Amino acid sequence: MAVQCYGAFMEKFLLQPSSPSDQLPLTGLTFAVKDIFDMDGHVTGFGNPEWLRTHPPANHTAPTVSTILRGGATCIGRTIMDEMAYSINGENFHYGTPQNPCASDRVPGGSSSGSAVAVGANLVDFSLGTDTGGSVRVPASYCGILGFRPSHGAVSTSGVVPMAQSMDTVGWFARDPVVLKKVGWLLLQQPEVEHQKPRQVLIAEDCFKLSSIPSERLTQAFVNSVKKLFGGHPIKEVSLGNYVEEKVPSLKHFMIEGNAGNEHSIPSLAALARSLQLLQRYEFKINHEEWVRTYNPHLGPGISERVSEAMRATDENIDLCHSIRIELRKALAALLEDFGVLAIPTVPGPPPKLNTDVSELQDFRAKAFSLLSIAGVSGFCQVSIPLGLYNGLPVSISLVANHGSDGFLLNVVHSLYNTLEEEVKASF
Which parts of the sequence belong to the Amidase domain (predicted)? Predict the structure, then answer.
């Protein structure tokens, strides 16, 4: 195993495009792949040495990776990930933690940790990851780069080790919005749509109150950029939690009355996160129980407890979770309509310090999953956009768009990015 600067890579190798051509959209670009994608002739490690030892080499390459290679990019290796994709921290007990290029004493975010670090540290032009509960969006935010989670089902997950298939997506990272867009159009395998300006831009004001960073620091540059490019008329504030509580009646089962007076919680979104985690545990068990019970693998702190909890999962309330998914998708589609975007914080604050005790992160994680579950449960597309540094640490904003509006969202990012970058520099 090669030791790389920033520790992003699990394995270094070179895979050239099958048909080199100056006409291909990704010619001249390099990329890395999370160690969850099958690569012909290589064992997919899934972040755990016991998994690596007990599985044979793949006999084919995941279609998403093949698509990128056919697009002209060169793969330079596979990246470290959190064990069994079951964390948003980015720390790996066995292989080490990739170094956050923005803050070396902070976690890089996971589970697509190495993929985000490889891009953030300029080791590659872009990279592939996966996002079930936040595994592209979180490390993108922590590493100060762009991260795109597509609509659920929009990009093939064939040849990818499943985590929880009701929410699994293949996502990607880039520093440049042009590269983000090129990779996206290739993976979506749809003809590029014309630029369409947002008809409405909804600011989820209650969600921004979950963040430890002042809401104006997260929204001011974004709102100024929207006004410059599209005018002020599309911008409107909404209370997303109240809307979701009203429009998603099945959530009532997961609501906890004690949260009602807690200013640091949005009860409906906290309930949404509980439904996501219940379904995630159940599907993880379906996918991996046989292997876990057969090999009893040594798992790192945090991962061990989550996997043990998943092994005890039952199908109780799983049908209710699926009802919530359907109701939420319908409700958010009605809210955003065609060509609408919802602005939320990607995460509730800057990246936590390395080796922080799990118990100290409970409140942060609860808030994080309240935000991450919006797209995770609905299946909507979401992009995390860097907003520079706050107190020396990376911060970001996320835009969410309707299911199937991935091309529109990529175009919005492309249109906004340079102006947003200028506004951030001018304002802070």
Answer: 22-410
* 391: number of Cβ within 10 Å: 8
Note down the domain range covering 166: 9-427
Name the catalytic one among 34, 182, 285, 367: 34
Q: Which of 351, 344, 343 is nearest to 394 (CA)?
A: 351
Cα dihedral 25, 29, 35, 40, rounded to 10, equals 70
CB 137 within 8 A of CB 346: yes
Average confidence (pLDDT) over 114-127: 98
Q: How far apart are CA 368 and CA 345, in angstroms?
A: 9
**212 tagged catalytic:** no
Query: Any bridge partners for residue 367, and if so which?
Result: none
Phi and psi at residue 149, to the nearest 5°: -105, 115
Domain assignment present for residue 168? The answer is: yes
135 belongs to the catalytic site: yes
111 is catalytic: yes
Q: Does residue 1 lie within any of the structural domains?
A: no
* CATH number of the structural domain spanning residue 329: 3.90.1300.10
Exposed / middle / buried, residue 233 (Cβ in 10 Å: 0-12, 13-18, 19+): exposed
Q: Is the pLDDT of residue 129 over 60?
A: yes
Residue 4 falls inside a structural domain:
no
Helix axes 267-295, 303-311, angle to 10 degrees: 90
Tokens of 136: 């592209």
- Write the burial class of residue 222 (CB in 10 Å: 0-12 exposed, 13-18 middle, 19+ buried): buried
Q: Of these residues, 112, 127, 135, 373, which one is catalytic?
A: 135
Q: How many domains does the chain have?
A: 1
54-111 pLDDT, tens digit per residue, is 999 999 999 999 999 999 999 999 999 999 999 999 999 999 999 999 999 999 999 9
